[in-house]
Amino acid sequence: MPARHVSRVRALYRRILLLHRALPPDLKALGDQYVKDEFRRHKTVGSDEAQRFMQEWEVYAAVLWQQNNENRQNSTEKVCFGAALPEEKLNDFRDEQIGQLQELMQEATKPNRQFSVTESRKPKC
């Protein structure tokens, strides 16, 4: 992989982890671990898959940045993170990706998460 691509990947990775700092502690821990695993898992993929990977994570970073700003501006309202996943995107997923998505959803909705962190005072949507 050319050096400019590597630096672009690293910059996006760092940007996402910085954006996660605004999340409630339990979501930050879950998100950080997921990002680290996904970036590690995609280190050796082909250029087409790498390009799709980067595009999707860039969209994620842009949405999270926007939600962080909206939450800061509306500090008296309930804090909201996340977005609906359109069915057409789900249809493009491989079986392995569907499995990962199910695992992530189960972990995110567990009453007692595996991460030992204090609960945020900000409610999640």
UniProtKB/TrEMBL annotation:
Belongs to the complex I LYR family. SDHAF3 subfamily. GO terms for cellular component: mitochondrial intermembrane space; mitochondrial matrix. It holds the Pfam family Complex1_LYR_2. It is found in: Mitochondrion matrix. It comes from the Eukaryota. Keywords: Chaperone, Mitochondrion, Transit peptide. Interacts with the iron-sulfur protein subunit within the SDH catalytic dimer. This is Succinate dehydrogenase assembly factor 3. InterPro entries: SDHAF3/Sdh7. It comes from Ursus maritimus.
